[in-house]
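Lab notebook, design round three. We kept the backbone fixed and only want residue identities now. Task for the bench partner: fill in a sequence for the structure below.
Input structure tokens:
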């Protein structure tokens, strides 16, 4: 099933990228891909999502799930896994989708999940930058709507009539985490391309004066290598990539290094990216609704994305009261928005918490569990709180939280108590060592910054990363290129070329 989907997706991408392909052929390839996508979502429920949801206790609210898929399983939209509703399903969708049952986020690795989850979100209302390609009709409509309805004080890049900033790669690096003027919200609506190697995937932005189209590419390699500071744990922005295939790689799927993942490594608290080439009209509408839930309803990014997808699935949907653009209001009445390919492309990476602060969530969860007499549940909440405090560099508080967790586990004879106690002792020893070596400048609220060779591989400078994660310019000459998965052979040249031939209705 997965091989058939990859083959159909590769064929569709090649057709979108090649301006010589006639519209009937493109339509046929797109229809075949949609069919295989539907079958993949049917398969995904029984293969994994259904059993996982059945094993969870939601406690009258949707559970939060962070998925770390291995290998090619990373291309599957698990949040769109589905099962038939049955004869009593009512007048709504005929399928029950995973996103209707849980808040689902993704991470390329457990380590990256923990680092992102320890970051504190910037409250709504901070510095906002909206970027669009003025040559793409729908991105212009999209960012104008966001400026009018959600972010009236936002800076606008790419629209010469607004702030006069072109939106070049250097302009964006300045406002990304680690730049000289980082934004709290960065929304980028443009073309994107998936490169033949992960570090060559790129956002297609405005070229600097005198530069060619190639100079307008902001690649994964540049995103990772251009940061001037370490990621902060108390100032983590939201980055929305309203473009095609920004959470997809054509190879090296384990711990996949996509544009979305690279921005999390760079220091973003939340990143919204896409798994396939998206339709310009439905995407502009989705983004308007997403930011409505984020600003007017004060939902966290993963919750806002889920509510947006539920809104798309609702046959009785009504436009948000803040939706002003008449074209988008008309798009909201479409009867095909519930189809998977219109709403399921977008995924969330980063902090999965509802409040953006896992420590506050942990305290509340522990109190509720204690009130219910659920001592193992309280201990688990204290343990998670302790681990995230450690990632923030607050070792004394982390040691106390872990000691409380160990004690609570011990009261009920839980076997985890002894192990948690050992972890707490290790954290306390770490704090003692750091206090004796304060001249190294290692501890702090923004996390621990050790020698480059001791940092997580994805956060090291390019010269000391594992060879497979380095940009091509600093890889060993002897290192070959991984073979493409089934269905990807022959797609590399097309994937490394901006898909201008796709027209204004796709962001590939």
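Proposed sequence:
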């Amino acid at each position: 099933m997965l091989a058939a989907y990859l083959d159909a997706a590769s064929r569709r991408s090649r057709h979108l990228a090649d301006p010589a392909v006639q519209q009937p052929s493109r339509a046929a390839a797109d229809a075949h891909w949609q069919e295989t996508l539907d079958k993949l979502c049917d398969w995904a429920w029984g293969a994994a999502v259904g059993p996982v949801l059945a094993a969870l206790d939601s406690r009258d609210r949707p559970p939060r799930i962070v998925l770390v898929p291995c290998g090619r399983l990373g291309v599957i939209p698990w949040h769109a896994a589905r099962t038939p509703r049955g004869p009593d399903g009512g007048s709504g969708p005929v399928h029950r989708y995973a996103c209707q049952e849980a808040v689902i986020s993704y991470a390329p690795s457990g380590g990256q999940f923990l680092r992102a989850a320890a970051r504190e979100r910037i409250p709504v209302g901070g510095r906002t930058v909206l970027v669009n390609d003025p040559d793409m009709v729908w991105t212009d409509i999209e960012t104008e709507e966001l400026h009018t309805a959600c972010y009236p004080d936002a800076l606008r890049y790419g629209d010469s009539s607004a702030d006069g900033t072109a939106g070049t790669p250097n302009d964006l690096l300045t406002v990304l985490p680690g730049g000289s003027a980082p934004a709290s919200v960065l929304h980028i609506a443009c073309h994107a391309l998936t490169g033949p190697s992960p570090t060559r995937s790129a956002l297609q932005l405005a070229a600097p004066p005198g530069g060619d189209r190639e100079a307008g590419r902001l690649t994964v390699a540049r995103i990772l290598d251009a940061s001037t500071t370490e990621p902060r744990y108390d100032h983590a922005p939201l980055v929305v990539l309203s473009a095609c295939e920004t959470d997809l790689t054509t190879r090296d799927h384990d711990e996949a290094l996509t544009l979305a993942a690279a921005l999390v490594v760079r220091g973003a608290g939340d990143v919204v990216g896409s798994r396939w080439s998206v339709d310009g009209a439905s995407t502009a509408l989705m983004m308007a609704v997403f930011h409505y839930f984020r600003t007017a309803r004060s939902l966290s990014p993963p919750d806002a994305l889920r509510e947006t997808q539920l809104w798309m699935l609702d046959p009785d949907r009504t436009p948000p009261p803040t939706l002003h653009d008449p074209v988008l209001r008309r798009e909201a009445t479409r009867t095909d928005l519930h189809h998977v390919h219109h709403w399921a492309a977008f995924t969330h990476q980063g902090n999965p918490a509802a409040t953006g602060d896992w420590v506050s969530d942990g305290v509340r969860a522990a109190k509720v569990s204690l009130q219910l007499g659920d001592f193992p549940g309280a201990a688990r909440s204290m343990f998670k709180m302790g681990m995230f405090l450690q990632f923030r560099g607050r070792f004394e508080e982390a040691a106390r939280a872990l000691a409380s967790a160990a004690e609570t586990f011990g009261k009920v004879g839980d076997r985890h108590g002894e192990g948690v106690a050992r972890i707490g002792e290790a954290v306390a020893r770490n704090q003692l060592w750091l206090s004796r070596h304060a001249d190294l400048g290692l501890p702090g609220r923004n996390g621990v910054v050790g020698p480059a060779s001791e940092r997580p591989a994805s956060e090291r400078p390019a010269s000391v990363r594992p060879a497979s994660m380095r940009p091509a310019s600093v890889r060993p000459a002897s290192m070959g290129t991984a073979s493409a998965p089934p269905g990807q052979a022959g797609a590399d040249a097309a994937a490394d070329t901006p898909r201008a031939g796709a027209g204004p209705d796709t962001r590939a």
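Keep this in mind before ordering anything: Residues 172 and 218 are 9 Å apart (CA to CA).
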